[in-house]
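Quick one:
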Amino acid sequence: MNKWFKSGAPWIWMTGGAVSVSLVAVLGLLLLIGWRGLTFFWPHSIYEWQVSTPAGEQYTVIGEIHDREQVSLAQLRGAGLAMEGVTAETLTRFLIKTGNREFVPLDFRWLLETNIASRAQPADLVVLERSNNGNFYGYLEQVRQGDNAVSGDLREQLNSRLERVQKLNREMKSLQRGDIGSISYQLEQLRLKQRRLELEGTATESALAEIRSQEQQLRADYQVLEKQLFALRTEAQRDNIVVRDMRGESVTLSLGSVLDATWPNDMGTLAKALHWFSQIGKFVSGEPREANTEGGVFPAIFGTVFMVILMAIIVTPLGVVAAIYLHEYAGKNNLTKMIRIAVINLAGVPSIVYGVFGLGFFVYMVGGSLDQLFYPESLPTPTFGSPGVLWSALTLAILTLPVVIVSTEEGLSRIPSSVRQGSLALGATKAETLWRIVIPMASPAIMTGLILAIARAAGEVAPLMLVGVVKLAPNLPVDGNFPFLHVERKFMHLGFHIYDVGFQSPNVEAARPLVYATSFLLVTVIVGLNLTAIGIRNHLREKFRSLDQ
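Output:
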């Protein structure tokens, strides 16, 4: 046994076991997040319960089972419920998602199994996904065009008219964000131009007349587009449906607010799978609704990826230049040692401290100075003097800078000095040696540092809350208005979206599945960014492998 320990085999097995346990734990966590998040988009069965309480109250509940739990009889009696005749030690109660938010006081309610008289699963129960007030559950009774009921198969009529409404909604959205948004942007630029002329004292009558002329033309164009928008909105509100809800009352709903209609109890496995993929696509490509508890997360995906790419563009040259200076040019003295210690210590600073620094230095000092110099006409409304995606990228660049410096310096130290000496002996300058020999050979190490920087920056939330991220951003940092790239704008982030939905949502039960879905999506985005960087690193490694020989 002593010989076996001295051979080192136990430590090998211990290390392998620790790696295996860690791998299983990570995969298990990802599977749990993925399962809890992705099953949310599966069309769940809709039930109709007949409920009878001990007090003699009888009513109907329509909804889907959101959760279930075992409750002890003592706990129920302690809550003041009369449980006469019940002998079981534990009872099952169901958490039911009922929807119909404008008519029912609660989106979710608990049903105790002893109060359930019957449970049915009717095939004609319809689920209506709406742009506001959540889902609506009930029985489709009529499809109307104006005040007239439409004959024929109700499902076919509803689906065909929903396609028409969705097309009109897309046209309205394109009109609002395209031509109307462009005119609004140009009007604002004219206002700022006039303000700048007034501040500079060059607001001549001819210049002001030209601005007024352009403004009148833009407002005339705006009126035309506004009429088109109102006409499309009227067309979208033309059709409506009548649905009987769980109260037994017929409710008229405008198709203009209905996004989708499904009959999950009448769907086969293939139809449910197709609907599942469709819902995931909507989640990835859509915009959030209802205080981020419904809809999609595309603005958060775009903001996360855009901010990380911008951060990578900033941190890579800074980190590489700093590492080259420290390793190739700086002398081996106490000052260099202190700089290296400071770089290493920067990696241990809490991220929220970087956020405070970014807010004070980048936003208020640098951004405020830029506003004073280049955008005085916008004041007191700040342009760069408020949190934005640029300051977020710079803050995270400083946060991840030590990782890139250390990784690059490690790569430079692995390059034999004979390579540098041979290049210099052949007549190359030191700059040429660095640019053509040393940096290409160290590029895999540089990419390794960038991979680690991306992995950390994509998941950071605390500093972003101070320097740019918001709950809901009305516009993306990229649009069709000059200069097309608006790095001064605030943006949405998947990490902050998870925090907001999970902890700031007014409806925690409704938001919980979206927390898992968004978490899984964030991990997927980080893995995708890292795999892209790893692919580039492997390509560079193969490309410059001959230089190592």
